[in-house]
Structure formats: C-alpha cells, structure tokens
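I hope you will forgive my troubling you with a question about protein structure. Here, with my thanks, is the record as I have it:
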Amino acid sequence: MTTTAVRGSGTTGTPGAMLLAHTRAQFLTFLRNVALSAVTVALPVILFTLIAGSAPSQPYAEGVTVGAYFLASMAAYAVSGVMVFNFGVTVAVDRGEKVDLLIRASPLPPVLYLLARVITALVFAVIALAVLFAFAWLVIGVRLPGETWLGLGASLLVGALPFIGLGFAIAYLTGPNAAVAVTNLTYLVLAFASGIFMPMASLPEFVRNMAPYLPTYHYAQLAWSAVGMRTESVGTSALWLVGYGVLFFAVALYAYQRDETRRFG
C-alpha cells in the first residue's frame, strides 16, 4: 500500500496531493495491521473496564470519581500508546522491508513522509479516544461536563508530541525484529511507573520517587488535571513534556543520521 501510494504520488505533482496519497496509504497500512490497530483501540477499553468498571461512581478524591480518574489515565495511555507504537513499530518495519529506500528514490519529500505519519497517528488517537469515551459514557456510566470531555481529549492530543520523538528514537535505535519487544517493554514500564495503571500510593516507594522524572507521569498529569484532580500545574507539565520532546527528537535525529551514514555513506 505504501509502495502504491508513493508511485502514485510521483504523478500528482503537488505536495498536497502527495501528502494526501501517502497519508491514505499509511492509514490503511496501520488499519489493516489488525494486531496493532485493534489492540491500540481495544486495550485501553479493556483495562478501563477491569480497573474502574466495578465502582465508577465511587469517590476517588474530592470532586473526582474512580471512573473519571481512571478514564483520564486510560485516555493518556491510549493516545501516547498510539504515538509510540505507530512510530516505534511501523517505522522500524518500513526500514526492515526497505520501504524507506523506495521513498528515498521517490519524489516524496521526507517532511511529507513524516507529516503523513503524524496525521495518521493523530487520526488513530482520536478514534481510540472516541471509542474509550463512548464506552465510558454508555456502558460504565461516567458522567462529565461536555467541556471536560473536550478538554481532556485536546490536552492529550496536543501534549503527545514527545511520544512521537520516543517512537522515532526506538525505530532507528532498534531493528524491525526487536522494535515490537523494545516498544512494549519501554512503554509499559513508563506507564506503570507513572501511576497510569494504579494509584501512585499503591506503588513501591522507589517507583514513587522516580515517577516525577518520567514523561508519562507529566503527560498523565495533564489528563488528571482535565478531570479535576490537579496535583501539578499545567505549565509545569507542559515544560517537562517540551523538555522530553527536545530530548527524544535529538536522540531520534542522531539515530537517523547514524543509520543514513551506515547505509548510504
């Protein structure tokens, strides 16, 4: 699919048409990878049901129910997971299948290749959020004001940029066979240690001490703040995420340039 889109993009001429064709190809590629796309959408729903499904209306903190708190947690997990896996796994697979060589020889500019992947990841993140929100409302019975739903989704989509950099870094630091395992291990450890799967008070002390230095912790803070549980200012969360974004993209750029030098001299 990617090959077809790139070939077709060479005849369209305009950057907009090339971007549209390649975005469509990337979207279909991700969609038809059922093992990845279905898990991306379904896993947050399953985890939310297991964690909060039995007592969603029970108070968790002042003004915040168990359902609202863990909805925010699973929403953060869903969006950041889409970003990390969409880039960490699929870019590594493209490298392994030499798709990047085909793109290099095509008229498609690298910036459009990157932009198509970002758009695809954002679309799937919106789909994952829509499914999770609908399930939480219709099945679990979570009730939040309309502006809270919108604010939660918007803050997570805007704050997800560092995880794109993390995904790219993994994709270029690992091979296609190792990317899935490395991505899963890295992201699950980050999510667990940040209190996304269980309250911070339930985690071991050394994990609680480490959590404030993790990107997923500050990303989850955006989500928790959106539903009314603010333990960190939005500005502080944003600064941490910007810093991690710079770090991850710097590592990704280094790994990309190293790969280019090794393969093309």
About this structure: The first strand starts at residue 59 and ends at 61. The beta strands are 59-61, 64-65. Residues 110-140 form the longest helix (31 residues).
